[in-house]
Design a protein that fits this description.
By secondary structure, the chain is an alpha/beta fold. Among the domains are: about 90 residues, Rossmann fold (3-Layer(aba) Sandwich); about 120 residues, NAD(P)-binding Rossmann-like Domain (Rossmann fold, 3-Layer(aba) Sandwich), CATH 3.40.50. Helix 4 packs parallel to helix 5, helix 7 runs parallel beside helix 8 and helix 7 crosses helix 11.
Length: about 300
């Protein structure tokens, strides 16, 4: 994205109240234009179409929908989506065998294990079994460690998308006090590390946090990552804060009471159309990056 495109994007994001509406759908469409060109260059240079393999265990309706959306995103930019569907009763050993096979597959540049998996599966072990060079969803411990230490690695897709949307819309992060509500391994914790890397002062809150509303009230940036509809109340929000709603609950409802809280904010992500599109966009971008490294930068196999 060039400077004029970025300026136009930011200008279009200002609503009638002077607030920035952080439109992830609009931003992701602009990024996809560039990704299509990059994928075409890979294909022209190598004669190979990069593959993103997505593993889904069982038939969780939400997971089926998410996998379909990711497949469509692959098709939009020219990647080949490969859906690997496993039965609900799949064991950890069986799933890890599938992951190892995909690790060895020369055509596969990225591997995504759709979360959540059935309870009998050790999800963390399976995340960690993914080759870090193909961990384009950034869910493995190796990927998290690199990101936390400021090294080159794949970020968890949603946290990476959140940082990207803030930076592209010109939201200042450095020096700000950020409160992350939630500490999951694929959202709250990696987002906190990315905010820290951008020189924010970061507090992670969770179910054992005392006086949560008071903690949130001091935040310049509030990131809600709890999976509970309208959990964050308007009276918790400091006027002028930036609201990042990473929740997506039934009925297109986020984790923040945006109807009442958004008018207090200087910038906010809508639900839907804010963080969600950027999650998929980040996944696509990291797959393209993995493909460029594997198919173009690497020595011939």
């Amino acid at each position: 994205m060039n400077d004029s495109e970025r300026d136009a994007l930011r200008a279009s994001a200002v609503n009638e109240n002077g607030q920035l509406v952080l439109n992830g759908k609009a931003l992701s469409a602009m990024i996809e234009d560039d990704l299509r060109k990059r994928v075409l260059r890979i294909i022209e240079a190598t004669g190979r179409v990069p593959v993103l393999a997505t593993i889904i265990v069982g038939e969780n309706p939400a997971s089926v929908t998410y996998v379909r959306m990711k497949g469509r995103a692959c098709e939009r930019i020219g990647l080949e989506p490969r859906r690997v569907a496993l039965p609900e009763e799949t064991t950890t050993a069986e799933l890890m065998a599938v992951i190892r096979a995909l690790n060895e597959d020369r055509d596969v540049c990225g591997i995504l294990l759709q979360h959540p998996v059935p309870k009998q599966i050790n999800e963390a072990a399976c995340f960690n079994a993914i080759d870090p060079e193909k961990d384009v969803d950034g869910v493995g411990a190796a990927s998290f460690g690199k990101v936390a230490l400021g090294e080159d690695g794949f970020t968890s897709a949603t946290p990476g998308g959140i940082i990207r949307i803030m930076k592209e819309y010109g939201v200042e992060i450095e020096g700000k006090e950020a409160v992350v509500i939630g500490r999951s391994r694929i959202l709250g914790k990696p987002l906190a590390m990315l905010l820290l890397r951008e020189n924010a002062t970061v507090t992670i809150t969770h179910t054992r946090t005392r006086n949560l509303p008071d903690v949130v009230r001091r935040a310049d940036i509030v990131a809600a990552c709890v999976g509970k509809p309208e959990f964050v109340k308007a009276e918790w929000i400091k006027p002028g804060a930036v609201l990042i709603d990473a929740g997506y609950n039934a009925g297109n409802i986020g984790d923040i009471d945006l109807k009442n809280a958004a008018p207090l904010a200087s910038a906010y992500t809508p639900v839907p159309g804010g963080v969600g599109p950027m999650t998929i966009c980040t996944l696509m971008e990291q797959t393209v990056k993995a493909a460029e490294k594997k198919l173009i930068s690497a020595k011939p196999e």
